[in-house]
Amino acid sequence: MREEILLRKLLADGEGTGEERRFQLLNACFRSLRNPSTVSKAEAVKVLRLIDSLELSMRKQREIAEMSGRQTKEYEEMAERVDKEIAITRGKMAQAKKDLTAARLVRKNRKEYALLVGMIDDLPSRAETTRKLEDMQEELAQQQERQQQLEARLSERRNHLHALNIILANFQKLLADEDSELANDAEQSEKKDEGEDDDRSQKEKSVDTMETG
To answer: Which domain holds residue 171?
Structure first.
């Protein structure tokens, strides 16, 4: 049964290399050892060497397996460290983004502050502003005084105009009264003249009558 297994391994491995080749040789040696009368010392030494070689190979495989296990553990630990470093790096990146946002805000505030300072520098000083305000107040007082003077003159002219209107009204009334008196005098004079004419006519008629008689 074992020979069939070894044979299948040899067929799968072709000519047989490495451990399969050693097992193949060891199997052949065991077959030759079945008949002790035909076994030589050289063959026995060869079998022992093959066994030592196989044991050495097994120790190597064990050490390789242990080393692979240690490397696997180291890789796992390294992967954990990498994951932790990635998490730390992500945290640092998030903090860096916050710091960048804060820095941009500070920069924006600095620009606005510089602009405000420039605007303040362009404005006149307090002393100059006070002087201009005093000048404006003085000019306003002068304008108010001029306005009062103009209003006084205007009031005086209004009074003069009112008095003139009264004088004109009285003069017009006087003229109207004089015209009325003249009209009455003319009417009375006309009536008087008409009366005198009537008397003269009567006298003339009387004279004519007397002369005719």
So the answer is: 128-179
